[in-house]
Records
---
Amino acid sequence: MKKKQEEAGMDIIAEVKEPFTFARFYEEHIVGRIKKAKKFLDEKGILFFFLSPFQQRNRLIGELCLIIIGVLLGVVPRTQTLLNQLRERNASAEMTALIESGEVIRSGSISLTPLASSQYNKEHLLAFYVDGKDAPSTAERYKVELTASSGTTVTNIQYKWAVVPFSEEGRILLIYTNNQKDSVGSGLYGLRVSVAKENLNDADIPRMDIVLSNSQKTTLLYGKNGIDLSVLTDALIGTGKNQPIAKAETQLQESLDAYQLELERIGGLPLNVTPAPPLSTLKDYVAMNRLYNGITDTSTTKDVTYILSVSDEERNPELSFPVAISYNGVVYNQDLLDSNAAANEEAAKTGAPIWTPSEEESIVIENLNALQEKADAVLDAIQSLNAASITKYDSLKGAELTLNQALDASNFTKEKKVKAEE
């Protein structure tokens, strides 16, 4: 019995553990595991491979393999992505890179800005804006050279051009190429444009790189219906990027929303008041005074053909939208306030009693003024929108005659053949 008690006592002593310390935790869980990992790497020969001077050749081979794998996993896919992007760009438009860069090319006394391009039935049309004080208005006065770049097979590609006067100093240069007899289908070409009488050397004329491919997109500039210069409206007039009409429409909508919120706020006052007119009435008033409703920031010169012009008198309408609040059977509006003010002036002269609003009436008048401010903000917004629409309409109307004219490539200059670049 005594022996069992002694053994039980020994069990209790064996189960007692040492108190926790960071030193022991570090030794057991960190240093211990590092030793185990080192022992494992040593047993598998991995440490020998990395540390032994006799394995230097094998380590170099391993590094070379890692570099090759990195190239295959990184550079090759990236190169393929770039090639795909290049193919997509070449297939999208002839002058995508030039147009996206926004670059203006200076050539002697003129400057050229790429505008748009199109490919239809293996025929290409390129459009440029030519700016210069002495820019000629006839095609014969320009020197246009289209040459095949190095690496591009020269086949039977013909090109010709035309010039359309746009403004006092601005011209539209159209370059047409016929690739129907081209057996290659695509290639990189260099384009140089200058004024013929200036006799500049090719080295002094900037070269524009363009891609001609029979897989490129057909745009509205040139297609089955021929040439449509109205597509160049935004590029030439330049109001689409700033979006003045869209911004004014947003401001108008925000003003209408603010008016509705004010109606709801006043209607919720604990005075049993009724504000008016409702939002629907204000919207009808806005629609009635909206000018050139069909004009947007993206409208072209073709759109103004179907929009009636507004007279100078109609362009400056006098806008007024009075509001009112009904309270205790009385309609409070600006006319009532003016009438009371006039009556008080007369009473001051004759000594008659002066009308003084009660506390509730003062609250009604204060909210009447607040509601009128919201209505006036809507009127200001409609005037801003009308001003933006008028400006856009006038710009379109000014360019309508030029950009809506019918053009045919058969009336361009005599065709020239694309040659290899010297």
---
Amino acid sequence: MSLKEFRDMLLTVTGRVYHYQAAKEGGDAYLVWQEVGGRALAASDRRKEVIREVQVEFYTSVEFDPLLERLMEVLEAHEIAFEEPVSGFDPDTGKIRHILECEAV
């Protein structure tokens, strides 16, 4: 999966998706994603596969926001491996932040 395909997949969860940093106006619920690493693997047919490590942060003002569950469903549907979210309050934004570490091929 290319990085643009990853972005497009996130856009099916919400139209408020940002790469690296959110827009200044903030808003209620949005996603910020960034690539944090990766590795190349040689496949059996001599193609090179790339495993991309991507961090997705979901910001919301809503406790138990159903968009978090929707995000995880979309990741699973696209066979993206991810760790359970690490959640906490972000004092810089005044929002709840859920961080998901993902791996996509």
---
Amino acid sequence: MLLPLLTSAALFAPPAQVAPAPSSAQAGVTPQQAEADLLDAYDWGRPLPPAPALGGAAARDLRWLKAAATFDPAKGRPASPFTDPRGQAEAAALGRLLKAPGTQRAELLRALPLRRSGTALALWRWGQRQARAGAFDVPLRQAWEDRLLAEGPALTRGYALRHALCWALAEKDEARFAALRVKPNPGAEVTLAAFQRLFGLLGAPSPLLRTWSLPGLAYQDLRLDQLGGSRVWICPLEAGPLPALPDGTAWIVPSASGSLDDRDASLSGDLLTEGQALAARLQAAGRSAHFAPSRSAFEQLGLAWFPILIALDAQGAVASVRMGDAAPRKP
């Protein structure tokens, strides 16, 4: 699962966004609001809302969107609810792409109509899995990203832009980044500026970050190359076993809330409680890490989606940044 700094599709929203409450239960909900509620729930990982009382084409489009949000991309395709020729043709075109061999995918991708939000969401979910598995070569991956950027709801366009930017950074592809910057992406200026800062980090000395040692909870201002490794893994600590770290890998654990001002040099309240809980887990496992309680410190560097793997060269400069969609699932 991709772990966001705030929310997984916050490209077109301010940093302080709070998860909106579903509204489809309200009487007289419009098809547009019903679609927005379902997409919001999908984005935030909430249960999908029950379908409101819609009729005709609007009801079928919403069923298609729900099917796209819930089908298993590894096993099949979303079930089509359409009875009209255009809807049936769009669902059939998606089905052909999802089961096609690699040699046919580029042509079928270009021909795929994206008139309905459900088609875009299904295309995103299928393609994200293909990209993670290494089934796309670079031209096909970029064609898939560009297809989603061109049409569909803001959610899938935001996902596609995030994916494309993360891979451009990982591959140090400045030409791809320049091409993405000139595409029409209203509201994405903050995200594009963050990636511009990240491209500026490549080859530059390691940035300074304020962290607290784990399990000792000792305050420290250190550059990334002073953390004890040539690789830096930045990922929250989740339930279950601690991740296995290869030799030479330093681990930074971002705070769940990230509420500390980056100028503060002490922990208190909920942040202290969070740090103590992390320290206890690592001490029990005989492990060490670094606790980063400030979200703004990451934002200033442009680091927005976890996990993040930063490689350093022999001089301690930043050699590569693999973030979010382009990061490995494990360190």
---
Amino acid sequence: MKKSVITVSVHMDYKTLREFSMFDTFVLKKHWIRPAVFGAIFLIFAVVCFAAAGKEQNWLLGTVMLLIGLGMPAVYVGMFLSGVKGQAKKLKLPRKVYTLTFSKSGVHISNDLKPEEQVDLEWQKIPAAFRCRNAIYLYAAPTRAFILPDGQGDASPDELWAMMEKHLRKGRARNRR
């Protein structure tokens, strides 16, 4: 049964916020590249140090460079996840955060965290929507997204995704599952 109006009341938790943050930062914005390049450079230097035989200091310097090459990217990801956890605590998750109503005319958004003016988005002005493993990420602007976890709407995730594919401009609905 196809619905003409679908309402999604989003109850956010830390796990959902973390999955979105990882997708947005590391997959969409590709912020994994700099730490990876940094780590690769130090790993190459470590291999060069280990390959240069003859002096005992080469092993020490190679070990230090290896630790830096592996440690700094790990610290980067750890600090990122720590920031996400802090944001979840600040938002006092889990709780209801917003409600989106999808219809032929567009998307109606109401904030459930604080009193704000409700927003209506036209389908043609929505830059992108991504269907991932456990949620749909609807980008209202390049820097503002709404997380729609599966099973929180009054229709199935497949029906909601079909509506988005139908109404969004061609190429704006991207299935990443």
